[in-house]
Write a structure and sequence with these properties.
The protein is mainly β and 91 residues long. Helix content is 7%, strand content 36%.
Length: 91
Amino acid sequence: MKEKEWNNRKKRRESDLIFCKVIFPDEEKKYTYLADEDIYEKGDFAWAPVGKENEKKIVRVTDVEYLQPEEAPFPVEKIKKLIRRLTPDEY
């Protein structure tokens, strides 16, 4: 993680959930996904499940936040999880 970005990001508490705001390449609207690992940074690309069929699509991470479950922007049980981070060679 870049030093500047690390200093601007709130430190993560063990009980915090990791929320990633993402955009799809053909859209400007931001969507929120959960992450299982604290490996995502602004600008990363990842696989994300989309729609009722959970079709796998590529998204770009625009922001990462650490929040307590009660601070979640939506009910936690309704937020989908990112599948995995892509390496630069994969995108």
